[in-house]
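Allow me, if you will, to draw on your knowledge of protein folds for a short while. I have a record of one protein: its chain in single-letter code and its fold written as discrete structure tokens. Could you please explain, in whatever detail you think fit, how the structure tokens follow from the sequence? The record follows directly beneath this note:
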Amino acid sequence: MTNPLQFNLDRSAKPPLAEQIRKGISTAVENGALRAGARLPSWRDLAAQLGVARGTVRSAYERLIDAQIIVSSRSGTYVSELRAKGKRPDIPPEPPSFKELYRDFSTGPAIFQMGVPAPDCFPAKLMARIRARAVRAEASAPPTYPDPRGATELRREIAAHVAIARALDCAPSQIFITSGFAGALGLALRVLSLEGRNAWMEDPGFPITRRGLEIARLTPVPIPVDGEGIDVDHGVLHAPDAALAIVTPGQQAPLGSTLSVARRMRLLDWAARSGAWIIEDDYLSELQLEGRAAPALASLDRAGRVLHIGTFSKTISPTLRLGFLVSPPSLVAKLAEAAASLAPAPGPSTQLATAEFMRDGHYMRHLRRMKRVYAGRRETLSGCLQARGYETSAAGLAVVLKLPDAVSDTAVARQALAHGLAPAPLSPWYMSPKTALSGLLLNAATLPEQRLKAAADRLCDIIETPAQARAGTDSRSAAQTKQPPDEC
């Protein structure tokens, strides 16, 4: 945001400098750039910023105080509540599509909400101590610009971790720290520069990924998925000229299937022959609850066509906004330039804390524990729903609940919010309404096992409520949507 006090002073103009400062601040208040209660810099600090005498700014402040535009107290100088409009006329309203697109990620944390880890199992005190040390280290470090690729310590830890957990052999120089998955995707798409081309997109697939492709001016082409993952032969037949494929080979988002070895090899062969790129979204692959996780797709890549994206959102916390991109050697230089110019890594303290968490073995211990916890919760939730007569399937940390015919998953999801439940409707994950299935995605990680039955029963009661009754309650207030179920 532009600093509202960055006005220009004309020393050759007839009005004195104090008057120019007074007018500049007054204008900023009147047009809403400075809102009611906004704190102004001290007259000493503003004088230093503008390169004028302290008395000049003090004189301007005194005139503004006399006019009741600003008020002064021991705690500082603030914009008066009486004179400020408090609203900028040029600020557009929040677009309706934003709330709909991000509803699954902005409601909670809430029961069954997708994309969040268990809030009751994370070693919060340990992480708080580690982060406090990292903040102190950052504050005492020399004031220099950090490496835009990310902290060396974290990139080393990630390189070691993916070598063990994902069978992906890479150097720290190939790793770029990003602001979550979206930051890595944006960095990759900027460097690949595939505007106007087609891109394979799993159908169903992550809606935000699909929107990201559209913003980058690519055309998503829906490719169906089944028990073996994305149907590569379908993609080659219907969109052989695609320049990119975005896949979730470890655990398909949202249905949970693992891309088979045969399809992995066909996908890599297609990319090598056609000169296409593959972005591997390593969604939940470390949190494989049944057996050992399959190696990363990038570990099989011999032609250098795969960009591997991972995050700490599901394993540690989405509040970190921390992800990483593993680049093939041919793109390292371009990605480094783009990171430095357009998308530098997040603040060092978060990175250093995460590096220490990994280096001291806490991360691996946490993952092992959470796999056991999540497996138990997912099994319990499936049992509760099946006992009520519903068909379910496991999908990563979630349970997919198939809805009866003629029941709208979006309508049920909206109604569930009024009861503190946040299931994600399955149909928006499909590109075409004609192929979309009606169902709910339920994250099993959000509640202890002993509380899952009550939440599951409440959700089933909502599903079994007649559609007319559900429609009559869709207008409940946002405040009600945040209330937890009575039983929980």
Summary: Residues 473-488 have pLDDT under 50 and may be disordered. The first strand starts at residue 39 and ends at 40.
